[in-house]
Amino acid sequence: MTFDYDVTIVGGGPIGSTLAYKLAKNKDLQIAIVDKKKNIGLPLQCAGIVSKKILKFNNLPEELILNQVKGAHLHSPNYDLSVSKKENEAYIIDRVAYDQYLLNRAKENGVKVINPFKVIGVNTKDGVITSEKGQIKSKIIIGADGSNSIISKELKNKQKYFNGSQFLLKSEDKIPEKDFVELYVKNQIFPGFIWAIPTYENIYRIGLFSNHTCGEEIGILENFIKNHPKYKNMEIIEKYYGKIPIYDKNKVLVKDRVLLIGDAASQVKPTSGGGLILGFQSTEIAEKAINHAIKEDNIKYLRDYEKTFKKNYNKELNYQLKVQKTLNLLSDDNLDYFFKQLKLKGGEELISTYGDMDEQSILVKEFIKKGYLFTMFPSIISHIIKKIWD
Question: What's the pLDDT at 383?
Answer without folding.
Answer: 82
